[in-house]
Amino acid sequence: MLIQYQQVSEGHPCFAGHFPGNPLVPGALLLSWVAAHFRVASGGEVVAIKNAKFLRPVRPGDKLTYEFDVNVTGIPPLPESSGFADTQLAANAFPGAAGVGKFSVLITGSDAALVATGSFEYRA
């Protein structure tokens, strides 16, 4: 499992228009953050989000945890291990590798909750 963290800035420009008096992160922006955090965690690129469910709004100041479970296809099985090293090994040793994965975005802290979940396709 790959994990990334983010503190949502209270001054993020999206909050000016989405929505005054009731600010929340637009779903499209949250999905772009999912793709960006996957790229940082794995070196891979999200090429398609196959489905996404938004379960709770993300608000200014929220602390988010991004979790990614990935399956690499088209390459030999990787050694028994998990996390960043596996995906990085695939990206470095098999440049054309691709796969599918699932993501979860959670708010952490005292009001912990699942925010969004879905699946995606990627290439290394």
Overview in brief:
With 124 residues, this protein is α+β, with helices and mostly antiparallel strands.
Q: Write down the overall mean pLDDT.
A: 86
How big a fraction of the residues is strand? 35-45%
The end-to-end span amounts to 16 Å
Strand line-up across the major sheet: 1-3-4-5-2
Question: What's the main sheet like?
Answer: 5 strands, antiparallel
Query: SS-based structural class?
Result: alpha+beta
Low-confidence parts, pLDDT < 50 over ≥5 residues?
81-87
Q: How would you sum up this structure, described in words?
A:
This protein is α+β, with helices and mostly antiparallel strands and 124 residues long. Helix content is 24%, strand content 40%. It has helices at 14-17, 27-42, 84-93; strands at residues 2-7, 45-54, 63-73, 98-108, 113-123. Strands 1-3-4-5-2 form a 5-stranded antiparallel β-sheet. It is elongated and about 45 Å long. The relative contact order is 0.26.
